[in-house]
Amino acid sequence: MTQGMDDTDALTHGRLIEAVALDRDRDAFARLFVYFAPRLKAWLIRSGAAPGAAEDFAQDAMLTVWRKADLFDAEKAAAATWIFTIARNRRLDLLRRDSREFPTPEIALTGEEIRRPDDILATVQDAQRVRNALAQLEAPQIEVLRLAFFLESPHSEIARTLDLPLGTVKSRIRNAMIKLRFILEPPQEGPR
Amino acid sequence: MTPGRNPSEERLLAYAAGVLSPPEAVVVAAHLALRPANDAWVRRLQGVGGAFLETTPPAAMSADALGRAMARIGTDAGDAPAQPPLNEMASELPEPLRRYALGPWRWVGPGMRIRDVHAPRDGNCRVILLKIDPGRPTPRHTHEGPELTLVLSGAYATETERFEVGDLEEADSTVLHQPRTVSDIPCLCVASLAGQIQLGGWLGRVMQPFVRL
C-alpha cells in the first residue's frame, strides 16, 4: 500500500466519524466498525484477553465511538488516534473498580477554532510522519513501545513479557523516545 | 526539549498510552494545559498509539458482530452524563481541574493549607490542592510513594531547584523535601500523592498525630 493510499484512508475515516457526529449516519458507522473493530479485538488479544472478551471490548469501544463522535476534531487528531484514545480510556474504565463514579477524564481533543480543510490534511500528514518515524526505529525499540501502549503495563510487566531485565526495557524505551523526538521534533526547528 | 521542568519522557509516554494512574493523569493533564509544547508532543505520542492500532493485523470477528453493533446503536439512548458544574476555584485553575468538586481547605501548618480534589483515586493515591504562603517552608517530609507536584500560581524552591507556573516536579520516597514559597503571592500547587506524607523534624513530629495529610 502506498503512502498516498494511507492518507486517503485516514481522511476517509475522519469524514466517516464526522458523518456519525453530524448526521448519526449508520452506514458511516458500519464502515468504521468493519475497519476498526477487528483491530481493537486484535489489540486486546495481544494484551492477554480471551477472544470472546476481546470481541466484547471491541463492541463496547465502538459503541463509545458512536456516542462520542461529536467530540472528534479532525484538526486535533487523526481518526485512528482518536479511536485509540477512546478505546484506551474505555479499557481503563473497565479495569478500574470505581469507574462508575469517576470515568477517565477525556483527553481534550476538541477545540473551538474554525476548522479548515488544510488543517485536517495537516493532521493526516502528521499522522503519516509519525508512521514514517516509527519505521526508522529498530525492531526491538518498536517492540517495547508497542507493549508500552498495548499492555496495561508498568515496565516490569513488559520485562516479564519479553523475558528481559527491567533496566534493559527502561533504556530501550528511553532510547526509542529520544529517537522519536529527534525525528519528529528535530533540534533545528529552533527554540520551542 | 521543552524549557522548564517537565515530566519525564516515560511519564508522558505512559500518559499517552493511558497507563498512568488516574490521579497522576489528572496532574499531567493540568500540566499539559499549561505547557502547549508538551501537549503537542503527547498528541504525537497518541498518534503512535493510533499507528499501532492501524498496523495491528485484524482479528476475525464473529459472523453476527456487525449486526449486533448496528442493533445496539439502533436502541442506544446514549450515556452522556450532565457535565459537572464549574467549581468555585475555576478561574484560578487550568481547564482539566475546573469541574472536580473540592473539599474544604484544611490548615496543615503555619501558612499552609490543603484541600482534596475529588478526582479519580487509585488505591491510596489521590489529588490535592496545596497553598503555601510567601516565605513559608513546608515541614520537612518524605513520601511513602511517588508524588507529582505542579505549580499553578506563584513559585517554590527546594534545596536545589526552583519551580515556576507550569513546572512539574516528580519526587519519590527517596527525596527529603522542604520546599519553600519564593513568590510574593501564595504558591498554589496541585499534587498527586501516593500514601501518606511522613513528616520529619520537630514540627513534623508534633503535627503528625493531629494533621491528616
Number of helices of chain B: 5
Name of the level-1 CATH class of chain B? Mainly Beta
Span between N and C termini of chain A?
35 Å
In which range does the helix fraction of chain B lie?
25-40%
CATH domain topology of chain B: Jelly Rolls
At CATH level 3, the topology of the largest domain in chain A is Rna Polymerase Sigma Factor, Chain: A
As for the number of domains of chain A, it is 2
Number of strands of chain A: 0
Please, what is the average pLDDT of chain A?
80
Strand and helix order of chain B = HHHHEEEEEEEEEEEH
CATH superfamily of chain B: Jelly Rolls
What characterizes the major β-sheet of chain A?
A: none
SSE layout:
The complex is a heterodimer of chains A (192) and B (213).
Chain A: H1 3-23, H2 26-46, H3 51-68, H4 79-95, H5 117-135, H6 139-150, H7 155-162, H8 166-184
Helix pairs in contact in A: 1-2, 1-5, 2-3, 3-4, 6-8, 7-8
Chain B: H1 9-17, H2 22-34, H3 36-55, H4 65-75, E1 106-109, E2 112-122, E3 125-132, E4 141-143, E5 147-153, E6 156-157, E7 162-163, E8 168-171, E9 180-181, E10 187-194, E11 197-199, H5 201-207
Helix pairs in contact in B: 1-3, 2-3
A few lines on this structure:
The complex is a heterodimer of chains A (192) and B (213). Chain A is an all-alpha fold.
Pick out its properties:
heterodimer; A: 192 residues; mainly alpha; Arc Repressor Mutant, subunit A; 2 domains; disordered N terminus; B: alpha+beta; Jelly Rolls; six-stranded antiparallel sheet; 11 strands
Structure commentary:
The complex is a heterodimer of chains A (192) and B (213). By secondary structure, chain A is mainly α. Helix content of chain A is 70%, strand content 0%. Chain A folds into two domains: 3-113, RNA polymerase sigma factor, region 2, helix turn helix motif (Rna Polymerase Sigma Factor, Chain: A); 136-192, Arc Repressor Mutant, subunit A, CATH 1.10.10. Chain B has one domain (1-77, 89-213): Jelly Rolls. Chain B has five helices and eleven strands; from the N terminus they run ααααβββββββββββα. Chain B has helices spanning 9-17, 22-34, 36-55, 65-75, 201-207, and strands spanning 106-109, 112-122, 125-132, 141-143, 147-153, 156-157, 162-163, 168-171, 180-181, 187-194, 197-199. In chain B, the strands form three sheets. A six-stranded antiparallel sheet of chain B has the order 1-2-3-10-5-8, covered by helices on one side. A three-stranded antiparallel sheet of chain B has the order 7-6-9, with no helix packed on it. The two termini of chain B are 34 Å apart. The model of chain B has no long low-confidence stretch (mean pLDDT 84). The interface between A and B is large, with 73 and 55 residues.
